[in-house]
Specification:
- The chain is mainly alpha-helical and about 170 residues long.
- It contains five helices and two strands; from the N terminus they run αββαααα.
- β1 and β2 form a beta hairpin.
- The relative contact order is 0.03.
Length: about 170
């Protein structure tokens, strides 16, 4: 509870409260910010630096084959309005954002609402809806088990290159 101060202006009977946070509240805030610090640092590194690099690249003509960056100034931005490819890309992005994203969101909300309601067979529909997630991970597991088995193509290639001894698997599954 805030403490009442003793200083009251002459002619007023109102009680004034001290609005400074307590030591405990300051300690909780400090602790909260310390918990947030790793996430902020990671976001700063992976998003902040990438955003700065994108702005840097937008003022340059980049050739990835020769690894050369030629400063262009605002010419790239001016070319946006005259380049047919850029105009088509912006049109496609806008139509995707206006049509596909809202439709996907509405359909997903309808499916989520139906699957959380009290309908008969909702567990069956949940299973059918989730099944592609399971089957794709199962298929990937089988593919990687084949590729990295003792007689699989990756181990055979490493054995023929002399990197692995014969009969040894890089990632053996038994």
């Amino acid at each position: 509870m805030p403490k009442a101060t003793k200083e009251v202006a002459p002619g007023t009977a109102a009680i004034q409260f001290d609005t400074r946070p307590s030591k405990r509240k300051l300690q909780e805030w400090r602790q909260g910010y310390l918990f947030l610090l790793p996430a902020v640092v990671i976001l700063g590194i992976f998003i902040g630096i990438a955003a700065i690099f994108v702005v840097y690249l937008s003022f340059h003509k980049v050739n990835l084959f020769t690894d050369s960056y030629t400063f262009m100034g605002l010419e790239n931005y001016l070319r946006l309005f005259t380049d047919e490819t850029a105009r088509k890309a912006l049109t496609n992005t806008l139509s995707f954002s206006v049509v596909v994203v809202p439709c996907q969101t509405i359909i997903a909300l309808i499916i989520a609402n139906v699957l959380s309601s009290k309908i008969r067979g909702k567990y069956f529909f949940r299973t059918v809806y989730f099944l592609p997630t399971l089957t794709s991970s199962s298929a990937l597991t089988i593919i990687f088990m084949f590729m990295f088995s003792v007689t699989g193509p990756i181990n055979m290639m490493l054995i023929r290159a002399g990197i692995l001894p014969a009969g040894c698997g890089f990632f053996p599954f038994r």
